Amino acid sequence: MSRYSISDLARELDITPRAIRFYEEQGMLSPERRGQERVYGSRDKVTLKLILRGKRIGFSLAECKELIELYDPAEGNRVQLETFMRKIEERRAQLDQQLLDIEQMKLELDTAEERCRAAIAATSA
Fold first, then answer.
1. What is the pTM of this model?
2. CB atoms within 10 A of CB 79
3. In Å, how far from its chain's centre is CA 80?
4. Which residues touch 13 (CB under 8 Å, ≥6 apart)?
5. Rounded alpha-carbon distances, angstroms, from residue 116 to 57, 106, 107, 119, 125
6. With bands split at pLDDT 50, 70 and 90, how would you rate the model's confidence at 75?
7. Which long-range contacts (CB under 8 A, 24 or more apart) does 87-94 make?
8. Which of 12, 37, 86, 125 has the fewest CB atoms lying closer than 10 Å?
9. What is the C-alpha end-to-end distance of the chain, expressed in Å?
10. Keyword set for this entry (predicted)?
């Protein structure tokens, strides 16, 4: 089993030690202690990777934590994977709605711009 110091993990995953300590405070990591030194294992590294990936795709920290807690290799992680798929579908639906909202806003901006241009043209004439 691999062992990592906080600086090793921070460097390898391109995050700050402070971020790692934050995830530990949130109960998502549980390093061993050697005096004042934190010693992280392979599971902690995988957990950090999952947190960072979840954040990149827009999951909240609570959603990341929920998925991590569902980790159960004895069952093939089926519940975790099914939950992950459901969350992906939810996130995709949110993004699709945001795209529609953006397109609608752009149309409203176009209309406002046209009205402003017409009003400026009318005052210049």
1. 0.75
2. 13
3. 17
4. 45, 48, 49, 52
5. 38, 15, 14, 5, 14
6. confident
7. 87/59, 87/63, 88/57, 91/57, 91/58, 91/59, 94/58
8. 125
9. 80
10. Coiled coil, DNA-binding
